[in-house]
Amino acid sequence: MFDKLKQLKELKDLQDSMSKEKLEFEKNGIKVILNGKMEIEELTIPDGLNKEDEAKKIKECINDAMKKVQMSMASKMSGLMNF
């Protein structure tokens, strides 16, 4: 039972530390900064993007950033869980 409580505390500590992390990603000149809660902290869009491509490129950049944050979090969680 105490092992489970210890694991829960470690998971909570990991979750708290990851929520404070900020990860920066850039694609097609668009920069997005996400925190460990997968919330957008900052989004920078360069001038000169045409309107047709702007939404597509923003979506691609955010989706790629979300995947990388998920992979980073999964990697850290698996290390904690010894998988």
Task: Describe what this molecule looks like in 3D.
This protein has 83 residues and is α+β, with helices and mostly antiparallel strands. It has a single domain, classed as Nucleoid-associated protein YbaB-like domain (Ybab, Chain: A, 2-Layer Sandwich). It contains two helices and three strands. The protein has helices spanning 2-20, 51-81, and strands at 22-27, 30-35, 40-44. A three-stranded antiparallel beta sheet has the order 1-2-3. A hairpin with a 4-residue loop joins strand 2 (30-35) and strand 3. It starts with a helix and ends with a helix. The mean pLDDT is 83.
Strands, helices and their partners?
Layout: H1 2-20, E1 22-27, E2 30-35, E3 40-44, H2 51-81
Antiparallel strand pairs: 1-2, 2-3
Helix pairs in contact: 1-2
From the alpha-carbon coordinates, what is the Rg to the nearest angstrom? 17 Å
CATH topology: Ybab, Chain: A
Contiguous low-pLDDT stretches (5 residues minimum) are: none
Q: State the order of secondary-structure elements, H for helix, E for strand.
A: HEEEH
Helix content: 55-70%
Order of adjacent strands in the largest pleated sheet = 1-2-3
Report mean pLDDT, rounded to a whole number.
83
Number of strands: 3
CATH superfamily placement: Nucleoid-associated protein YbaB-like domain
Query: What is the annotated CATH architecture?
Result: 2-Layer Sandwich
Number of helical regions: 2
Indicate the CATH class. Answer: Alpha Beta
Terminus-to-terminus distance: 20 Å
User: How many structural units, i.e. domains?
Assistant: 1
Provide the β-strand percentage band: 15-25%
Q: Which structural class fits the helix and strand makeup?
A: alpha+beta
Query: How many strands, which pairing sense, and closed or not: the largest β-sheet?
Result: 3 strands, antiparallel
Instruction: Give the overall silhouette.
Output: elongated
